[in-house]
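Supplementary Text 2. Reproducibility record for the structural model of the 96-residue chain.

All settings were left at their defaults, and a single model was retained for analysis rather than an ensemble. We include the record here because the model underlies the residue-level annotations in Supplementary Table 4.
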Amino acid sequence: MEQGSRDILKDDGLLVAPAFTHANNGGKEKVIARLMELCGFKAYHKWTDVRCCVLIQNSGFCIETKAVLHSGFPLTYVEATKLRAANIHKAAELKA
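Retained model, structure tokens:
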């Protein structure tokens, strides 16, 4: 995630980051992902839900909400706010 995300988001704003997290797909999910590629939906980066959250946290955000929705393949839904002194403790708890 680029520094630009922090610059654009207001200090009290909410970052909403849905991401397909299909790096650890099983058999059925791999077939669905392959069919989507053939239809033109190419995933250039394959993420796990953990790697996605680490990227967001390392970009200066505190994750407020995280959910993994399982359908054809997992979708990780994250809501985050800019990291401030008040939520540094919460970010440390999520990393643990």
